[in-house]
Amino acid sequence: MRYYKYTGNISGYSITKPGAVCIADLMLYNSNDDTIAPTRVQAFGEIAEYIHRLECTDDEERYLEWEFCFDGNLFLQYIIIPACDSSNRPAKIITGSQVGDSCKSEFRIFGNPDHIITNHPQAMSHEEYSAWLNYKYDHFSRN
């Protein structure tokens, strides 16, 4: 499966809970480049709930520029929050990849699970980054 990336922020969202599954409809925009069209994606389950909880705060994490990775159906698979240091490791990765054809998601946070409260986040540890690379290979590298 092919994945796409959008770098920017959430400009708006709506949340619904039909049954027991949380669904977030997200509008993404890039405030640094107005030539990039806004994009709409959907997030399911715990990753949608994480976004909703964060959007109800004033934590710096929600104002940082994120990398949203989604599939061809515009379903959000994971979010990368870059670090502001010289390493090549991100500060945090939040994943909600779907398991097979079901709506069940595997929610996991790589890096510090708490909301980022600084506008200069540090990179995750080597161990967390290695765990992310293994997870990414297992969940997002299959056809």
Q: In a nutshell, what does this entry contain?
A:
This protein has 143 residues and is an alpha+beta fold. It has two helices and seven strands. It starts with a strand and ends with a helix.
Structural features, described:
The protein is an alpha+beta fold and about 140 residues long. The protein has two helices and seven strands, in the order E-E-E-H-E-E-E-E-H. The protein is globular and about 40 Å long.
Write the layout of secondary structure elements.
Elements (H helix, E strand, L loop, with lengths): L2 E14 L6 E7 L9 E6 H11 L10 E6 L4 E6 L10 E7 L6 E7 L14 H15 L3
Antiparallel strand pairs: 1-2, 1-4, 2-3, 4-5, 5-6, 6-7
Low-confidence stretches: none
Rg (CA only): 15 Å
Terminal residue distance: 5 Å
Helices, by number, come to 2
